[in-house]
Amino acid sequence: xxxxxFGVGIAILTSASPYLIGNSINLYLxxxxxxxxxxxxxxxxxxxxxxxxxxxxxxxxxxxxQTRFSLKKTILTHVLNTSFGPTVKPGERIELIDGDVDGSxxxxxSLYFDISLNCxxxxxxxxxxxxxxxxxxxxxxxxxxxxSIAYLATRKRSNSLYTAYVKDNTVIxxxxxxHLYDSKPYTDRIxxxxxxxxxxxFRSSLKASTFESISGSCYPVAIVVLFFVSAHLLSVxxxxxxxxFASAIYLERVLSPTMSMISIYYSSREASYxxxxxxxxxxxxxxx
Length: 288
What we know:
Elements: H1 2-29, H2 35-80, H3 90-104, H4 110-132, H5 138-158, H6 163-181, H7 188-216, H8 218-236, H9 241-267, H10 269-286
């Protein structure tokens, strides 16, 4: 809840500065000396963002470290109190305790901060752009719609991006730890498995990047819409240079968080699988 509050606060400060800058341009063109006060206000908001982000990051790291300790302690207790069959190697248990916890930590705290921040920026940016002129909101909305459609079209294919990689990685970590424990040299089979894991990781990352780039093409779509809408409004005298300038900034303020959230989804596929494995692992051993 506190992290969400930080996200909303940072979003408001981030969105306020372009609004004041746009107004300062209009005031300057109207030969109004109050444009200096608008610029000063924008500068204060920009400066205030840094310490608030720092405070949010400190709180986030502190909370994440507590969660990491709690999760590792819980899983380690299950491991020590549970008898495993011969098929489960000690190295695989290490991967469960260490790799899965560290690999899924983003989903426990940082995710909520990033989503609250990005969603708040999008909402505030759309409201301010609509306040300038409702038609100016068509540009960010068109980009948002395009990115959402592209995301929904590729979402199903991305659900299992890192499943094979994480499973094979756990097995090979177990085999490596077993060889180290027995002081045995790596066999050709182990070396081949390592190469296969690297290949799987590369393919998964490449697919995720491809899916992200499809959604990322929303930028030229939105820019073209903004160009035509701005030309129309200026020709009929329904808008001014300051509003158009601020709308162009807010266009980026809508699309950049949108792409950040889509990127979060694709990049957290591995973390999501690891967290589901932690949960199933805990449930599996609750009854023992």
